[in-house]
Design brief:
Strand order of the largest sheet: 7-6-5-3-4-8-9
Structural class: alpha/beta
Shape: globular
Helix content: 25-40%
Radius of gyration: 23 Å
Strand content: 15-25%
CATH class of the domain at 455-548: Alpha Beta
Bound molecules: adenosine monophosphate
């Protein structure tokens, strides 16, 4: 018999280590919320509010319309939308019609959407007029039978906040060959789609992985995956029924889909949406709606912290704040706590784990690894196993040694849409091979050392960019930092730092090199330092190291 894994020792004392799973599909989770509290707010959008009953009625009507348009069980319905109420209506309607919802980044350009549409072959697309004109329409040129419904970001509110909605025209521009979502819903209002039941293994979502490496692949998140990770968030963060959530992550990304949308269904709580992330708008939403929880990329939390109108009590309604998706420098956590009196905890996961696989328990502070200086990303959540293996041989390594993180549990996706080879490569005997390099310590805490492919090899010395970035962030003038390997005639690769500085700060390359030299072995110190105003990021806030390699 093997001993209990060490991570169980970090669990919140009064909670079960393997609780019953309450829902087996995402649609029943939503239906339970409607039955429990139909009049409770489900979505706040600026000054507008939709109740659970209204969300139910609109998604019934839209599901009836989808079926009338020929959408069949297992067909794909693509949402190419910002954080608007129509995203949630479209998601539930897709499920009520028996379809799979595909959430696509509205920042995608035509070329990217063409590839994505060719892969997921949607029957119907819901998008914004400007996204339609610029990208969706040309990308659908070879798919004339695809239905398109248009929703206007100014719908469902009257405030028209100029900071995020200001650039949009007062009226939706004409979009030939499409129908307006609001009109379609009005026409079918009162109709109900035939009952649909999903098993835990049915696919709820196709979510294309962030694309920081290689061609995007559609991760098949099952209904059981979604219901499970929503429950993990609720239990691990200790949220109660009706605790509101602030939507700072984009809804098309897995963090927004689970840590915002699915979570509020389970809590029967309101989700506050604001079209897209803008720190001043988010601070106002915090004051107005008093949410209990949010999760987002650390770059978003840094933007909240540095906003001129951010007061010390701005986050006082939050029971907890989490960050996931990208590394967090301990210096940033310290600065955030000094500013707001709130400790940022880490969650780690992938699209392929339907959001979190490890979370820093809400009653603990994450340790910092003495060797790498990295903040732990938490411990495996209940019913989840993590094994660190040799990236070449696949053999487990000893506690405290770096290797590839592999994950097994109810959150691991069914695989990649249309990509059996990529699926067998990534998921072996139920273990997801993440491509992340990490260390599990003897107490069950996981540390991310880096992505496998980001490792810099300087004349045989391995340099993990994360470690160098954490040191760069300890310099008070540094706002954002990225470290990449660049070709070097002598060493094969050498270390390059790309920095953006805080407003008004000054820093020379020599000064930051001296700062690093004091704090790390010579081979890790950046040989090249470049200053730019803003680092390139994915819309989810992940710094795009790849773009900095040139
Ligand atoms: P995505 O599929 O877009 O969610 O990206 C998943 C990747 O983001 C993981 O493989 C990690 O490399 C990275 N990631 C996720 N969470 C964290 C975290 N807490 N700290 C550092 N990197 C993270």
């Amino acid at each position: 018999m093997t001993a209990d894994p060490a991570w169980l020792r970090q669990y919140t004392p009064d909670r079960s280590t393997a609780p019953a799973i309450e829902h087996h599909d995402a649609l029943s989770m939503f239906r339970a919320a409607v039955a429990r509290a139909p009049d409770r707010p489900a979505i706040h959008y600026f000054d507008g509010t939709l109740s659970y009953a209204e969300l139910d009625a609109r998604s019934d009507a839209l599901a009836a319309a989808l079926i009338a348009d020929g959408v069949l069980h297992g067909d794909r319905v693509a949402l190419v939308l910002q954080n608007v109420p129509a995203f949630v209506v479209g998601l539930i309607a897709a499920w009520k019609a028996g379809a799979i919802a595909v959430s696509l980044n509205p920042m995608n350009r035509e070329r990217e959407l063409r590839l994505l549409f060719a892969d997921c072959t949607p029957k119907l697309v819901i998008t914004h007029p400007e996204t339609f004109i610029e990208a969706v329409q040309p990308a659908l040129a070879e798919h004339p039978t695809v239905h398109v419904l248009i929703t206007f970001a100014r719908d469902d509110q009257t405030r028209n906040d100029a900071r995020v909605l200001g650039a949009l025209p007062p009226q939706a521009p004409p979009c030939p060959g499409t129908r307006a979502l609001a009109e379609v819903i009005a026409r079918h209002r009162g109709q109900r789609p035939p009952p649909v039941r999903f098993s835990a293994d049915d696919i709820a979502l196709l979510v294309y992985t962030s694309g920081t490496t290689g061609l995007p692949k559609g991760a098949m998140n099952r209904h059981g995956n979604v219901a499970f990770t929503a429950q993990v968030y609720r239990d691990w963060i200790g949220l109660s029924e009706a605790d509101g959530v602030l939507g700072i992550a984009p809804l098309f990304h897995i963090t927004g889909l689970i840590g915002h949308v699915a979570l509020v269904f389970l809590l029967t709580a309101p989700l506050t949406l604001s079209y897209r992330f803008e720190p001043g708008v988010m601070l106002d939403a915090l004051a107005e709606r008093r949410p209990a929880f949010t999760i987002g990329a650390i770059t978003a939390l840094i933007a909240l912290m540095n906003h001129p109108s951010a007061q010390r009590d701005a986050l006082s309604s939050l029971k907890a704040i989490y960050s996931g998706g990208a590394p967090i420098a301990p210096a940033v956590v310290a600065a955030f706590e000094a500013k707001f009196g709130l400790y940022v905890r880490n969650a780690y996961g992938l699209t392929e784990t339907t959001s979190p696989a490890t979370i820093c328990p809400v009653h603990l502070r994450a340790p910092v690894d003495p060797a790498f200086g990295a903040l732990s990303v938490g411990v495996p959540t209940y019913r989840t196993e993590i094994r660190i293996v040799d990236a070449e041989t696949g053999a487990p390594v000893a506690d405290g040694e770096a290797g590839e993180i592999t994950i097994r549990g109810p959150q691991v996706v069914a695989g990649y849409w249309n990509r059996p080879d990529a699926t067998t490569d990534a998921i072996r005997d139920g273990w997801l091979h993440t491509g992340d390099i990490g260390v599990l310590d003897g107490d069950g805490w996981l540390y991310l050392v880096d992505r496998k492919k980001d490792m810099i090899n300087a004349a045989g010395y391995k340099v993990w960019p994360r470690e160098v970035e954490d040191v760069l962030y300890t310099h008070p003038a540094v706002r954002e930092a990225a470290v990449v390997g660049v070709p070097d005639a002598y060493r094969g690769e050498t270390v390059k730092a790309v920095l953006s500085l805080k407003a008004g700060a000054e820093l020379s390359a020599d000064a930051i090199i001296a700062h690093c030299r004091e704090r790390m072995a010579a081979y890790k110190v950046p040989r090249i330092v470049e200053f730019i105003p803003e680092l390139p990021k994915t819309v989810t806030g992940k710094i795009l190291r790849r773009e900095l390699r040139g």
